[in-house]
Amino acid sequence: xxxxxxxxxxxxxxxxxxxxxxxxxxxxxxxxxxxxxxxxxxxxxxxxxxxxxxxxxxxxxxxxxxxxxxxxxxxxxxxxxxxxxxxxxxxxxxxxxxxxxxxxxxxxxxxxxxxxxxxxxxxxxxxxxxxxxxxxxxxxxxxxxxxxxxxxxxxxxxxxxxxxxxxxxxxxxxxxxxxxxxxxxxxxxxxxxxxxxxxxxxxxxxxxxxxxxxxxxxxxxxxxxxxxxxxxxxxxxxxxxxxxxxxxxxxxx
Length: 253
Ligand code: CIR
What we know:
Blueprint: E1 3-7, H1 28-44, E2 48-52, E3 68-71, E4 74-77, H2 89-96, E5 101-103, E6 116-119, E7 122-127, H3 133-143, E8 149-154, E9 166-170, E10 173-177, E11 190-194, E12 205-207, E13 210-214, H4 218-226, E14 230-234, H5 237-241, E15 251-252
Parallel strand pairs: 1-2, 4-5, 7-8, 10-11, 13-14
Antiparallel strand pairs: 1-15, 3-4, 6-7, 9-10, 12-13
The chain binds citrulline (CIR).
Citrulline binds next to loops.
């Protein structure tokens, strides 16, 4: 059984973190409608979806990916790098504990799940403004007993998270935006290339042969079809205004 954990969007999402103030501002009603379409897409790709209740204290809480990293039957509950987001982990930890063994992180480590891309027994982890060296060391220590190798990746300036430019497709394949990271970072992985002017589409959720991608990126869509995937486009204009995309809205385990 593939499970996906998501979280309802609070009214305070209008004030979510973003590198630049969105113009026009976030439309919370539209964001909720798009989130419902995202959850429906997850379910239609075969996931059993659980959606956590709204917490108005946490404007960014729809971005659950950042709060946990799952390997096999264990979940490392992160310490998100943005202090305003650290409260988000409580409800996620309680829910995941019903399914998985949860492992803690500790100060001064910080880590966002959006910086962690797992491919087989390797986790590529972006060293970013959100994820520090202590956090990366705690990630490596948590999963070393499970045979996980952690490979730190330096991010180009202005990239929020590793998975802003790449995401896993299963079976040793990844989506990677052209011109973002040196492909040699990813050793012998098979790359499905995203054109540089469609970089936003490099963040996608793969479940089996299904891939949920952002609406409006025809060349990425075509590249996935050519690689024998079944892309399914969903609208995400409102989460994009808060620097979010597709993987960040769920924890798939
Ligand atoms: C933030 O700045 O933390 C949120 N507004 C966006 C987080 C997006 N998370 C992700 O891509 N994993």
